[in-house]
Design goal:
Layout: H1 3-13, H2 16-19, E1 28-30, H3 35-42, E2 47-51, E3 59-64, H4 68-72, H5 86-89, H6 99-102, E4 109-111, H7 116-126, E5 130-134, E6 140-145, H8 146-160, E7 164-166, E8 173-175
Parallel strand pairs: 1-2, 4-5
Antiparallel strand pairs: 2-3, 5-6, 7-8
Length: 176
């Protein structure tokens, strides 16, 4: 087994709990947080996790950066199609006032004991770039994003002394 294969095997088997950022560094609001607080966070983040309260940290939903369009547009400018009537009510002018009014309930989650390979497989399968990490009670423990996985892989390559170089304009890559 060469250096790259060893590095990849190590990477795939890493536990998400060992590489996820601290929950205190994550963008989190509660169900009753005003929309203005959500918008302030979304100025610099791509998503905001919504929890029932800061003590229990039970994950309830997520609000994504692109959801801001529905929040800011008047209800009549939001296309309502079968199964997506709720988008109309996510507008401030439609009556939305707090995080619970605009959050998405369908959250992609993964268990805190899962591995990097589990996360990558789930991200690819569902075409998502971020997963909420939860425990068996649904408590938000962290998050894992494709960006974090890339950073961790590059860190592992540097620590392991494996370097990757790409020559010329071809797509052929070589590991050294």
């Amino acid at each position: 087994m060469n250096d790259v294969e060893r590095a990849l095997q190590t990477f795939y088997s890493m536990k998400l709990s060992d590489i996820m950022p601290s929950v205190i560094s994550m963008p989190i609001v509660t169900l009753d947080s005003p929309i203005v607080d959500v918008l302030k966070l979304l100025r610099t983040r791509h998503h905001v996790w919504v929890v029932s309260d800061k003590k229990s940290m039970k994950l309830e939903g997520v609000i994504r950066y692109l959801d801001v369009m529905c929040i800011l547009l008047p209800p009549e400018n939001t296309k309502a199609r079968f199964g997506n009537i709720s988008a109309i009510f996510k507008s401030i002018l439609g009556g939305a006032e707090k995080a619970a009014d605009v959050m998405e309930h369908n959250i992609m989650t993964i268990d805190e004991n899962a591995t990097v390979l589990d996360a990558l497989t789930k991200m690819r399968r569902y075409k998502v770039q971020i997963l909420a990490i939860i425990d068996e009670k649904g408590t938000l423990k962290g998050e894992i994003s494709l960006r974090l996985l890339i950073d961790e892989f590059l860190r592992l390559m540097k620590v392991g002394g494996v370097q990757w170089t790409q020559h010329g304009s071809s797509s052929r890559s070589e590991w050294h």
